């Protein structure tokens, strides 16, 4: 079974991004490209938590609403949110109105502040879990030993909604692994970007 499809522009892409120009743009310009920006890392992990039980397309389509609702995922600002903010967000039809997940983002923002104080940055911490062996993109797992280890450590530090499957989706998206399918036009671009990337220390 092929893991790629040919699109109208003549490009072969991972089959999962079919059906929407929004998905195609995300696939071509974001998914798998390495990220070292703490705000973007926090945003992505937060959105992966919201995605649990839903499609990623649902979250992607609402991403600008999430950004507006959560102070563009500036975790220093989100950490200051209180109960009134929770109630405001539960009523916000532009996002996923799941009280537990909303509260988890605020809770995790405080954990993110602690991590920056301890580790220097979120990026310095997360990139320690980059797999040693490169992915072939052939058989993509739901979780890996690295995502299990990262999930355990995040939970030990008090983070919520960070199971190993959620964490692996985060690792794929943030470029810690290149899971673009063989034959996908973006795979080589991601590999080039990863080769030029210096993981934060």
From TrEMBL:
<dbReference type="Pfam" id="PF03352">
    <property type="entry name" value="Adenine_glyco"/>
</dbReference>
<dbReference type="InterPro" id="IPR011257">
    <property type="entry name" value="DNA_glycosylase"/>
</dbReference>
<dbReference type="InterPro" id="IPR052891">
    <property type="entry name" value="DNA-3mA_glycosylase"/>
</dbReference>
<dbReference type="InterPro" id="IPR005019">
    <property type="entry name" value="Adenine_glyco"/>
</dbReference>
<protein>
    <submittedName>
        <fullName>DNA-3-methyladenine glycosylase I</fullName>
    </submittedName>
</protein>
<dbReference type="InterPro" id="IPR004597">
    <property type="entry name" value="Tag"/>
</dbReference>
